[in-house]
């Protein structure tokens, strides 16, 4: 037989093709974290009622744990006002409502009406006024007097009641950019309930300089106990919320230029409810040698960033960062069981990390960009993996704005839109693949492109639009130039009733919200916040923009012009779009946590939220809440409401007519295996707890103080599988297994379906 050899190029092509075909047949290993639910806040319905021309506008939250079939009833003064269950939206206008009315909302699951939300009164206008206690001013060593005004804010559930509180930073009038010398007054941090009750005040003291790049504060439930902590950099002389001084009260490390280039630096975790310092350690990334950061006077060494990341895919960790013009360092911590534990350190000066120097921004973003369910840190033009190693660097350098989200729903994964400062950068504005750093499109400007924004403002083009300064124009998600006219480049906000995003900005310091008219490239005013002011000078930011109350549309917080109050503005536009509260979307919630950091940026969701969107995905989360205030409860079966969990001869089952009654009463205590969980201690057998044995049976066993017992007797309380107003209990060591009854006996099992969900749902009833 005459055999003819293929040319080398052809043979190489066939070999490569064969390899690709073989690889295609190899199953991709599924990440162990891929289906791990994330810890989130246990929020209430967040009901808000506002007087409008045709009645009272009422809106409320759809929780991330709610079943898709859930509907709602609205009650005014205890009387239902809707004629049929509200199943396609989470807002309603009650034409018969009065300014004196009170409102509640009840969920309906499988035809059964659940418990009422906390009742709310009616706002007389589209904002809530939160009174503040303005700190007294002072005088610097150079004789300069200063006063205080409200600056950045964040929110968290500080007391575990399902409602957000506000943590507010007060800036002195002599706050400084790092580039400028001069003394500043101390930074003040307050916490307020929405009724204006001040919970605490922290004074960071003379050894923390005031300015946008110095104090970055995180408000988040880091240990999973259902209540948020507050984390920030501190120093000798910081006074916590209970009046206790951290370190040396008399130390003063300020030099004659008002800079602080020596002395210890601390990282402190504060209790969110009391402001008490829970733990203080040496701050890392440490200052080290000032000149190693790129100058010798403290400009570059004192550029700080911070954020929250789910590095294990399930629970939040603390991210602290320093430097971005040249040297960059990032350190990750866990706050668990009242201890700060360092996880890893990234240093751009370490071997192999040279490509990551000088790539950071004045802000960061955080999200799972590579699909392994664990978060990465998007640090300007570079990304760090969840393990603290560099994932990639685009090499495009420092910039003033970046945005992470699903901006092009027609391609897989997330994208990053960024602008860049260097005149020699290949692109002044560009969109790249968040996973790989591949540039999808870009515009060369040859100039410091200082502002850029991404939002869906034009329904004629799929996905979000992106625009920037310096002639970039408005571009589609694929980079097509739509118009050279540029809308405001500040914040984007979900405000009216459609799925497009509106634009938040200011005129002369007065906050405003506009709608982009894509037909004629003009702006239409929707809101002028007369009497309220923006912050951060020409940047014109709000103190905070987030989905704080009501349905999925966002609220905005601006301070009043006289610095005596905050105003929380909310929309009163009806919408038929029903979307889970944005605060239960992981990327959005993390965006709110880092929004106060340095150059504030608006939050984005991890899914495409805009015109033509697919149905929003249900968040893969579990919620944690602190134990019931009553502490002692009976656990009532959801589907056998006359039966309660009880022990009999130490076996646990559900039963009716329990005698003695104490056999069905349990104290909910902090989890034996961890404070983010709960344990059930018998009322009449103290020291005995509901415990899952190896065969899955639930017994009342005496605590032997072993770690295995603690794990077996600790559970995570989550929203009820059959009714979100009730509770289900996951095993501490296996979140797929729930306490459930079967033939009236209690087990810990995995399962699904309506029967299983009902068997695994219980109401906590006060005896």
UniProtKB/TrEMBL annotation:
GO terms for molecular function: alpha-L-arabinofuranosidase activity. GO terms for biological process: L-arabinose metabolic process. Residues 38-123 form the Rhamnogalacturonan I lyase beta-sheet domain. InterPro entries: AbfB_ABD (IPR007934), AbfB_ABD_sf (IPR036195), Ig-like_fold (IPR013783), Integrin_alpha_N (IPR028994), RGI_lyase (IPR041624), RGL11 (IPR034641), RGL11_C (IPR049366). Residues 127-619 form the Rhamnogalacturonan lyase family 11 C-terminal domain. Residues 633-763 form the Alpha-L-arabinofuranosidase B arabinose-binding domain. This is Rhamnogalacturonan endolyase YesW. It comes from Paenibacillus montaniterrae. The lineage of its organism: Bacteria, Bacillati, Bacillota, Bacilli, Bacillales. The gene is yesW.
């Amino acid at each position: 037989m005459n055999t003819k050899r293929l040319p080398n190029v052809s043979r190489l092509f066939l070999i490569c093709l064969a390899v690709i075909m073989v690889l295609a047949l190899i199953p991709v290993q599924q990440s162990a974290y891929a289906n791990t639910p994330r810890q989130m806040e246990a929020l209430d319905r967040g009901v808000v009622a506002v007087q409008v021309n045709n009645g009272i506008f009422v809106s409320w939250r759809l929780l991330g744990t709610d079943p898709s079939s859930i509907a709602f009833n609205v009650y005014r003064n205890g009387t239902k006002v809707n004629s049929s269950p509200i199943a396609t939206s989470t807002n309603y206008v009650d034409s018969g409502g009065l300014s004196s009315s009170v409102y509640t909302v009840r969920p309906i699951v499988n035809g059964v009406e659940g418990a009422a939300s906390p009742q709310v009164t009616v706002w007389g206008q589209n904002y809530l006024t939160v009174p503040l206690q303005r700190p007294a001013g002072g005088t610097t060593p150079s004789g300069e007097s200063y006063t205080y005004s409200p600056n950045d804010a964040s929110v968290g559930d500080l007391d575990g009641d399902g409602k957000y509180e506000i943590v507010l930073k007060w800036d002195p009038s002599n706050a400084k950019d790092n580039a400028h010398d001069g003394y500043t007054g101390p930074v003040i941090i307050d916490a307020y309930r929405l009724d204006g009750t001040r919970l605490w005040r922290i004074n960071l003291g003379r050894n923390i300089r005031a300015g946008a790049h110095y104090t970055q504060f995180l408000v988040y439930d880091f240990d999973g106990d259902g209540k948020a902590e507050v984390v920030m950099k501190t120093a000798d002389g910081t006074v916590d919320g209970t009046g206790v001084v951290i370190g040396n009260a008399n130390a003063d490390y300020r030099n004659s230029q008002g800079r602080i280039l020596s002395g210890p630096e601390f990282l402190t975790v504060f209790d969110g409810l009391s402001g008490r310092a829970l733990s203080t350690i040496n701050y890392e990334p440490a200052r080290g040698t000032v000149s190693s950061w790129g100058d010798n006077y403290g400009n570059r060494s004192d550029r700080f960033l911070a954020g929250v990341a789910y590095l294990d895919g399930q629970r939040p960790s603390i991210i602290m960062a320093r430097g971005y013009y040249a040297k960059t360092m990032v350190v990750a911590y866990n706050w668990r069981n009242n201890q700060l534990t360092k996880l890893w350190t990234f240093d751009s000066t370490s071997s192999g990390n040279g490509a990551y120097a000088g790539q950071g921004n004045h802000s960061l973003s955080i999200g799972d960009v590579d699909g392994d369910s664990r978060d990465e840190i998007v640090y300007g033009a570079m990304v760090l993996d969840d393990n603290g190693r560099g994932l990639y660097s685009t090499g495009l350098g420092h910039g003033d704005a970046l945005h992470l989200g699903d901006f092009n729903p027609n391609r897989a994964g997330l994208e990053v839109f960024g602008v860049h400062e260097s005149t020699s950068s290949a692109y002044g504005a560009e969109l790249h693949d968040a996973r790989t750093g591949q540039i999808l499109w870009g515009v060369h400007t040859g100039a410091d492109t200082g502002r850029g924004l991404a939002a869906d403002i034009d329904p004629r083009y799929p996905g979000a639009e992106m625009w920037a300064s310096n002639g970039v124009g408005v571009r589609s998600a694929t980079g097509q130039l739509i118009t050279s006219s540029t809308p405001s480049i500040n914040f984007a906000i979900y405000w009216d009733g459609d799925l497009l995003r509106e634009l938040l900005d200011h005129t002369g310091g007065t906050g405003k919200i506009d709608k982009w008219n894509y037909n004629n490239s003009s702006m239409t005013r929707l809101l002028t916040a007369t009497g309220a002011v923006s912050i951060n000078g020409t940047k014109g930011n709000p103190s905070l923009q987030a989905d704080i109350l009501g349905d999925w549309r966002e609220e905005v917080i601006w301070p009043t012009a006289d610095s005596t109050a905050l105003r929380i503005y909310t929309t009163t536009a009806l919408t038929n779009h029903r979307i889970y509260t944005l605060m239960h979307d992981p990327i959005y919630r993390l965006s709110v946590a880092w929004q106060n950091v340095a150059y504030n940026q608006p939050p984005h969701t991890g899914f495409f939220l805009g015109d033509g969107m697919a149905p929003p995905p249900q968040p893969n989360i579990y919620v944690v809440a602190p134990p019931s205030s009553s502490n002692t409860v009976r656990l009532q079966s959801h589907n056998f409401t006359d039966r309660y969990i009880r022990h009999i001869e130490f076996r646990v089952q559900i039963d009716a007519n329990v005698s003695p009654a104490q056999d069905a009463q349990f104290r909910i205590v902090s989890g034996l295996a961890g404070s983010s969980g709960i344990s059930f201690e018998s009322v009449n057998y103290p020291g005995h707890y509901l415990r899952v044995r190896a065969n899955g049976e639930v017994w009342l066993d005496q605590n032997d103080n072993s770690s295995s017992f603690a794990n077996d007797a600790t559970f995570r309380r989550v929203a009820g599988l059959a009714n979100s107003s009730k509770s289900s209990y996951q095993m501490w060591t296996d979140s797929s297994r729930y306490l459930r009854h079967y033939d009236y006996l209690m087990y810990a099992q995995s399962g699904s379906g309506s029967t299983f969900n009902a068997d695994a749902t219980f109401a906590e009833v006060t005896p």
